[in-house]
Every structure is written in structure tokens, then in C-alpha cells.
Amino acid sequence: MAQGSKLYSVGASVSAIVAAQVARKVLTSGWQAATRKQPPANPADPDVEMWEAVAWAVSTGAVIAVARMLAQRRVAEYYRKSTGELPPSLQADSA
Questions:
Q1: Which of 18, 43, 59, 71 is most buried by a 10 A CB count?
Q2: Contact 20/60 with Cβ under 8 angstroms?
């Protein structure tokens, strides 16, 4: 069980990283299509317009968080199908 738990942790981490990278690329492409500009490299820069900084921060935060969560849920579901139970770190939530 400990080996499976370690594999789950690695799988969940890797899937979250990949999902975040894919989401960021999709967001960047969408931003460029919608605004005809590059997204702000640093929203905290005072030279970036406030609406741009807020829109970019909100959209990246929300979309990347959802993408990571969905990827981790898929890994957890795969773990459950493989072992018959949820990973140990998620078992307390289902109780």
C-alpha cells in the first residue's frame, strides 16, 4: 500500500504540473486572440493597466486551479480503479 501511495503522490504532482502548463498555454492563446496583445508578464508592474492585471490574475488563478484539480481527480479515480479504494490522503474526505 505504501508503494501505491507514493506512486499516487508522484502521479498527482506530475499531472497537476502538466495540467497547469497546458492551461497556461491555452490561456495565453485565448488572451492573445481576445486582446491582440501579449498577456502581462508581471501583473504587479504599475505600467500594466489595472483591468489587464486583474483580468489576467483572476483568469490564470481560476483556470489553472481548476485544471490542476481535475487532473488530480483523474489520478485519484485511476488509483481507486486499480486498488479498489481511494488513496490514503483522500480517504478521510470520503468518510
A1: 71
A2: no
Q: What is the pLDDT of residues 19-61, one digit of tens each?
A: 999 999 999 999 999 999 999 999 999 999 999 999 999 999 9
- Contact of 87 with 79, CB cutoff 8 Å: yes
pLDDT computed for residue 5 by the predictor: 80
Could you tell me if residue 24 is left (phi over 0), alpha (psi between -120 and 50 degrees) or otherwise beta? alpha
Segment holding 5, helix H or strand E: helix 2-35
Q: How far apart are CA 50 and CA 64, in angstroms?
A: 21
Distance CA 29, CA 25 (A): 6
Q: With the C-alpha atoms ordered 71, 72, 75, 77, is the resulting torsion angle positive or negative?
A: negative
Residue 25's Cβ-side half-sphere holds a number of Cα atoms within 13 Å equal to: 5
Grid cell of 81 as nine digits: 480503479
As given in the structure block, the three cell numbers for residue 37 are 496583445
Please tell me whether the overall predicted TM-score, pTM, comes out greater than 0.85 for this model.
no
